[in-house]
Write a structure and sequence with these properties.
The chain has 267 residues and is mainly α. It has one domain. It is built from ten helices and two strands; from the N terminus they run αααβαααααβαα. It has a two-stranded antiparallel sheet with strand order 1-2. Helix 5 packs antiparallel against helix 6 and helix 7 runs parallel beside helix 10. The radius of gyration is 19 Å and the shape is globular.
């Protein structure tokens, strides 16, 4: 093992994350504003911070930030479709197994909260699967980058540690699924939109995903039955249904990529 290279990689990764934490919390947000405005501001600041750091660190590394404009529209559609399949199949199977969702008194204005959810998903993906992932993959390998960034992704969702093994396994599989999409579609567009749809539809619409406490939801998830099916306190993300859906989604995407590569086609 090259100790010097390992030390430099660790320091760069730690510095990137440390500076993001500082920047994301540095800008004060007024307390006398609506909860929506506060959350929107907080998520926007976090996103701007990670974009800024990505540009700076990439410039220092002399890595060009690539944007295939011709494919952006296509990747947006793919990300949204895969995201809807991901959450749609999960919720659909859970409903068939007895989980129910009921309406509450909140109006459709709740859907405005999808905007900060998008900012949050983009910030998370850039933070975990952006510069840090690229750095580790370049210095070591795809497997090493996947393992380390998956550990980071799990740590950022550390609130589930006390809720048992299944929610943690689901977070690991979610990270692997999003990393698979990153590699297959050669960029963050698809992972960001899948992450957004999962959190937005699952949390804001169905109320079945635990977002930050101030996020509202259009529906309420009624967790009746076995925790292994309903997810218990972790809701959808603690269900064994999601475990199998994650595995199936990942297998489909990887097989799809292999078939495309075999036929010499471009995605």
């Amino acid at each position: 093992m090259n100790i010097k290279k390992t030390t430099k990689t660790i320091l760069k990764t730690a510095l990137f994350i440390f500076l993001w934490v500082i920047l994301a919390t540095l800008v004060p947000i007024p307390e006398n504003i609506s909860s929506f405005a506060w959350r929107l501001s907080a998520e926007a600041i976090a996103l701007i911070a990670v974009i800024l750091l990505t540009v700076i660190f990439s410039a220092i590394e002399k890595n060009k930030i690539k944007l295939d404009v011709e494919k952006v529209g296509k990747y947006i559609c793919i990300g949204l479709i895969l995201g809807m399949l991901w959450i749609g199949i999960s919720v659909g199977v859970m409903v068939l197994l007895g989980t129910s969702f009921s309406g509450n008194s909140r109006g459709v204005k709740v859907l405005l909260w999808l905007i900060p959810v998008l900012f949050n998903a983009a910030a998370q993906e850039l933070l975990v699967r952006g510069y840090v992932y690229s750095l580790i993959k370049r210095e070591y390998s795809l497997v090493t980058a996947t393992v380390i960034t998956t550990l980071l992704f799990v740590l950022f969702h550390g609130g589930t540690f006390s809720e048992g093994l299944l929610p943690i396994v689901n977070i690991v599989l979610t990270s692997l699924l999003l990393t698979s999409c990153l590699e297959v579609f050669e960029g963050l567009t698809v992972p960001i939109l899948m992450h957004f749809v999962w959190n937005g539809v699952g949390g804001i619409v169905f109320g079945g995903i635990n977002l930050a406490e101030d996020y509202p939801s259009l529906l309420t998830m009624n967790s009746n039955g076995s925790n292994i099916l309903t997810g218990g306190i972790c809701k959808i993300e603690g269900s064994i249904v999601v475990l199998f859906v994650n595995i199936i989604m990942m297998a489909i995407i990887l097989v799809w990529k292999r078939n495309i590569a075999k036929n010499g086609e471009n995605i």
